[in-house]
Amino acid sequence: MGNDTLSFLDAGFLETEDSDRHASLTIGALAVIEGPPPDQKEFRDAVAERLLDLPHARDKLRTAPLDVSAPSWTEDSNFDLDRHLRRVAIPNPGEEEALFGFVARVMGHRLDRDHPLWECWVVEGLSGDRWAMLAKLHHCMADGITGTRLFEAMCDEVEPTIDPAAGSSGPDRPAHQPPPAPSISTLLSPSHQCELFETILRAPLTIARAGLGAGRGLARLLTEMLMSSSDTSLIGPIGKQRRYRGARTRMADVREICAAYGVTVNDVALAAITGGLRTLLLRRGEHPDAHTVRTLVPVSVRSANDDAESPHNQVSLMLPFLPVDIEDHVEQLTAVHRRMSAHKAGKEAQGGKVFTSLAQSGPFMPLAWALRLATRFPQHSVVAVATNIPGPQQTRHLLSRKIVDIFPYVPIALRLRVGIAILSYADNLTFGLTGDYDTTPDLADLGTAIEQGVSSLLTAARLETAGSQS
Question: Residue 115: CB partners within 8 Å, gap ≥ 6?
């Protein structure tokens, strides 16, 4: 089962969800699959064989009164696999718009914290003899990279990790209970106060060990988080309902653009998002400037020494402004590349890791209360989230059926009305777009504009390559 206590970052997703009554902080992946859907027994057996021994698949949360300690995982003695397996059929003609609408409805609902925090859906009725699987889990269980690994555990190409003889009716192992949370009297004791004082004294040492650059990166990151962006309709109060759309591009086209301009896949994706958001704003009658769209870009901080199988979130972030004030697509790409390079050189991601390391070594209760208080104030700095998740490089199969597409899902909260997840899979780079239902009725236009942005960059890249070869 691994570590049964949530890290500060894991718990932060719970605190954020608690602070925003309209948020559901679940991540997900939608796989579109060729062939007939499996019957319920075949699907149930596959889940029982391949998923149930993965971290916390059978565990529920246990929280301590007044947050005197971090939440922990404990065995769900009433675990019932069928509670987590759902099945639905979308109406004829089974178009993707209906599928994406279904995803929006499912992902907008919070998971029941009295049970393990995941669901798996089979979606029947897609056109072209296809079906889909939607995997949904709470962000406190995993980051995007870990979530992709969990998804891959369902694929035929990955060996099962448990003994199939264990079955799916419930665990036979003894129920594990984490150690009891410390009492209030313990927290107020002289020994605990000494530990708190030592934690405060260790903070400068932790920053020093991380390096001067990481310390400056932390200062820069905190400064950016306090600075407001220009007014835009992309930020503001959100409701409980969601919209969801997918966009597709060919990875070969993206790599061709990368080769022509000496940039990364992430640069191309962010440039396409920049063009898409600019188009959206202009159609809304807004005039984007250089400080309109500050974007939260999560960055994995897993090192070679980190446990590759750890389910804990191990992410930091950068906060670049996307150049939505620039009209030309190639100039947008150049600006994105330059800004991302500057943020990387500024070591913002390392600074964020220092912050979470400090938080992890400190007492949970005051940090949790401080986070809860901070998230109750309306933020005016971050306008959108854009996360890039590396997916399987080779084609995968599920129950001997080919997975055609995988679309990622990222949640929105705290006045962010648009979230964009990017996932590479085999020959495709897909975008999963999450929007607030009431304020982003034009979310499909954003998906179209992103696809057109990549197409425009590809045309320019081929002209650039032809010109350099002539």
Answer: 60, 76, 78, 79, 83, 84
Q: For 137, phi and psi rounded to 5 degrees?
A: -150, 155
The Cβ of residue 360 has, within 10 Å, a number of other Cβ atoms equal to: 15
Strands 384-390 and 418-425: parallel
User: Which residues lie below 8 Å from residue 413, measured CB to CB, with a gap of 6+?
Assistant: 16, 17, 20, 22, 23, 25, 238
Q: Are 420 and 271 in contact (CB under 8 A)?
A: no
Distance CA 211, CA 347 (A): 10
Reply yes or no: is the peptide bond before residue 93 cis, omega within 30 of 0: yes
Q: Which residue has the higher pLDDT, 141 or 346?
A: 141
- Phi, psi dihedrals of residue 82, rounded to the nearest 5°: -65, -20
Q: How confident is the model at residue 208 (pLDDT cuts 50, 70, 90)?
A: very low
Distance (Å, whole) CA 120 – CA 111:
12
Beta bridge partners of 61: 73
Angle value at C-alpha 295, between 293 and 299, nearest 5 degrees: 165
Which DSSP helix (H) or strand (E) runs through 421? strand 418-425
Q: pLDDT for 34-53, tens place per residue?
A: 999 999 999 999 999 988 87
Confidence of residue 263 (pLDDT cuts 50, 70, 90): very high
8 A C-beta contact, residue 454 and residue 249: yes
Query: What DSSP assignment string belongs to 304-346?
Result: TTS-TT--S--EEEE-PBP-TT---HHHHHHHHHHHHHHHHHT
Q: Please tell me the distance from the alpha carbon of residue 423 to that of residue 405, in angstroms, as a whole number.
A: 10
CA distance 327 to 331: 8
Burial class of residue 79 (count of CB atoms within 10 Å of its CB; 0-12, 13-18, 19+): buried
Report the pLDDT averaged over residues 224-237: 87
> What are the percentages of helix, strand and coil residues in the chain, rounded to 5?
40, 20, 35
**Position 221 pLDDT exceeds 70:** no
Q: Is the dihedral of CA 441, 444, 449, 450 positive or negative?
A: positive
Catalytically annotated residues: 139
Q: What angle do CA 129, 132, 136 make, to 5 degrees?
A: 175
The mean pLDDT value for 395-414 works out to 95
Query: CA triplet 356, 361, 365: central angle to 5 degrees?
Result: 90
Q: How many of the other CB atoms lie within 10 Å of CB of 340?
A: 18
Cα–Cα nearest to 429, from 270, 298, 281, 247: 247
Name 163's Cβ contacts closer than 8 Å, sequence gap at least 6.
Answer: none
pLDDT tier at 203, thresholds 50, 70, 90 = very low
268-311: pLDDT as tens digits: 999 999 999 999 999 999 999 999 999 999 887 665 555 555 56
